[in-house]
Each structure stands twice: as structure tokens, then as C-alpha cells.
Specification:
It is a single chain. The protein is an alpha+beta fold. It has 10 helices and 17 strands. The longest helix is centred in the N-terminal third of the chain and has 21 residues. The protein is globular and about 60 Å long.
Length: 322
């Protein structure tokens, strides 16, 4: 028996090795379909007949489930292609990959249609609040005066982030696009052209004692925390990434997190919270394809074993899509 992993370069995702080892301990092989090499090197085939769609290549004989990680068809396209043509090919390849996964008839964790329902950051906050979670005051805008008014109402300062995560960091007229969450400075608030080309998310900066990462795998929740001090984004400091320890999650927060997953149909997700001096948790955002190796290794939480249980049917999926 085997599990089919659909991913980009697996060396960029250390959690894959942890799950591979857990599967091998159970006598199960982790096969691989390199999405980034499709369509240049990887071949796929789906047949439609009177009985419906059937994924025919590569063979899925002996495969019991599919694990979808970061998968970006078209990443290996020739560099000489025009940008518009390359983008069109990527769209066709992504649609074909999605069709292949659906035609497989196998459980996919998490399927492209589920991931497509994942809300952008502003809508995440609305869902979290509707489910009873605390959220920070937030402004989404490209209107500079609205930003100034918002900043004046936030005594601890304001942080900025992209409306939706971008996977590149670039410089445009000396300004960085993408990257980590950052504190808004007085220089930022004096630059009226800074929002001219791209709307942003702005949130009140919250005094915090700890940052929490809650990883959901089916029925199970794994909570870990790190004391990041004044560091706004713990991802920017390797010692903090490696410094997570196990933490307790209040039952009402755990219920809301699982309800959030049920709302979308997610089996696997990572939720970020901050905790203040009174022990109150505030929801920051949710990630559908979070890295988890640093949580497992630092906090000694068996996340890869839980993923393996899900992939092999030891634990049934919990989420109700809808």
C-alpha cells in the first residue's frame, strides 16, 4: 500500500520527511507526484467514459489516499516563454491537476476545492469573530486618510500585512512587497503614496506575552507557544521558530477552531493566536498549508503521526464540508 504525495520540491518542506518516516514504520510507501514539474516533466492522464472520470496516469494501483501539500503546476516552465503564455499554461495545468485528483476517487487531504474555499485574511477574521473568537481591530484599505485615522485610534501602534499571502519578496521603488508582518512607522504614515498601488491590511498592535500556533489534524488539536517578547513576527528569528513548547488551549477556543474547520471543510490547518498578560487569546489568522516540522520537533508533539493516521484511515476525517 502507498500514499501519494502531491507537492513541489519536497526538500523545502521538512514535515514531509517526518510523515514519510511515520509511514515507513507502518510498512507504507510514500509515492510522489511533483506538481511543479507538471506539465514539463510530469505526465498526467484522465479518461472520461460512460462511467465517469478515471485517473489513468500515473497509476494509482495500491494508493489509499492523496496528501496535497504546496503544489504549483508550471513552476518549471521554460524561462523564454512570454509571461502571459506562461500564466495561461499554469492555469490549464492547475485545472488538469485538480481534475486528476477528483478523478482518482481517493480521499484527498485537503482537496483543491476545499482549499479554494479558504477565505482571505479579512474574511477569516469575520468568521472567527462569528464563532466567538476575539480578533484585533482591523482596517483594509488603500485610502491613506483612513489609515491615519485608524492609526490615531490604536495606542500601541499598527501592524501591516498583505490582504492575501504572497510567495515572493520584491523591491518596488525602494519598498519591500511581501515578507513578514511589520510595524507601521511614522515615516510610513508620512508617505501618502505608500498605498497608491496596493491595498493592505492594518491591525492594532496587541501587547502580548506569548504567540500560539494551533495545528489541526482531523479530530486532533496540537497547541504550542513561544515567548517572542517584542518581536512582532516570530518567523523572522530562527531561535523563536525552534523555541515552541507545548501549551494548553482553552476548551471554548478549541471548539471555535474546530467549528472554523467544519465551516470550510478543512482536515489540516494552522491557527495563530497571541496571548496577553491576562491569558486572553486573540485570533490572528489561519493557514491551510502550514509548515509543522518546527512545532513537532520543538514542542515534541506527534503531528506527523496524526497526519499518518489520517492518511491511512486509522482516524476518520472529522470535517463536514459545506
Amino acid at each position: 500500500m502507498s500514499v501519494l504525495l502531491v507537492c513541489n520540491d519536497p526538500t523545502n518542506d521538512l514535515g514531509i520527511g517526518l510523515v514519510d518516516a511515520a509511514l515507513r514504520r507502518r510498512g507504507i510507501t510514500l509515492a510522489m507526484l511533483r506538481a511543479d514539474r507538471f506539465p514539463v516533466e510530469q505526465r498526467l492522464a484522465v479518461r472520461l467514459d460512460e462511467h465517469g472520470y478515471h485517473a489513468t496516469a500515473p497509476s494509482l494501483d495500491g494508493v489509499q489516499s492523496i496528501w496535497l501539500r504546496h503544489a504549483d503546476p508550471g513552476d518549471a516552465l521554460p524561462e523564454h516563454l512570454r509571461a502571459d503564455l506562461a500564466e495561461a499554461i499554469r492555469q490549464q495545468a492547475a485545472a488538469t491537476l485538480s481534475t486528476f485528483l477528483e478523478a482518482s476517487g481517493l480521499p484527498v487531504f485537503d482537496s483543491p476545492d476545499v482549499l479554494a474555499r479558504t477565505p482571505e485574511k479579512p474574511r477569516q477574521l469575520a468568521i472567527a469573530r462569528a464563532l466567538g473568537l476575539r480578533t484585533p481591530r482591523t482596517l483594509i484599505t488603500n485610502d491613506f486618510q483612513s489609515l491615519r485615522d485608524f492609526a490615531a485610534a490604536c495606542p500601541h501602534g499598527v501592524v501591516s500585512k498583505m490582504v492575501e499571502s504572497v510567495r515572493v519578496e520584491a523591491m518596488a521603488d525602494g519598498a519591500q512587497i511581501g515578507g513578514f508582518t511589520r510595524v507601521l512607522t511614522q515615516e510610513d504614515l508620512a508617505d501618502e503614496q505608500s498605498l497608491a498601488l496596493c491595498p493592505m491590511v492594518f491591525q492594532e498592535r496587541l501587547p502580548k506575552v506569548r504567540d500560539l500556533r494551533v495545528t489541526v489534524v482531523g479530530e486532533r488539536l496540537f497547541c504550542a507557544a513561544v515567548r517572542a517578547g517584542e518581536t512582532l513576527d516570530w518567523r523572522s528569528r530562527p531561535e523563536l521558530v525552534a523555541g515552541f513548547t507545548p501549551a494548553e488551549l482553552p476548551p471554548e477556543v478549541a471548539r471555535a477552531v474546530l467549528a472554523y474547520c467544519d465551516r470550510i471543510g478543512l482536515q489540516f490547518a494552522g491557527f495563530d493566536f497571541v496571548e496577553d498578560a491576562q491569558g486572553e487569546l486573540t485570533f490572528i489568522e489561519a493557514n491551510t498549508l502550514p509548515f509543522f516540522h518546527f512545532i513537532e520537533q520543538g514542542a515534541k508533539l506527534p503531528i506527523s503521526e496524526a497526519i499518518t493516521d489520517l492518511l491511512t484511515g486509522v482516524c476518520a476525517p472529522r470535517c463536514r464540508e459545506g
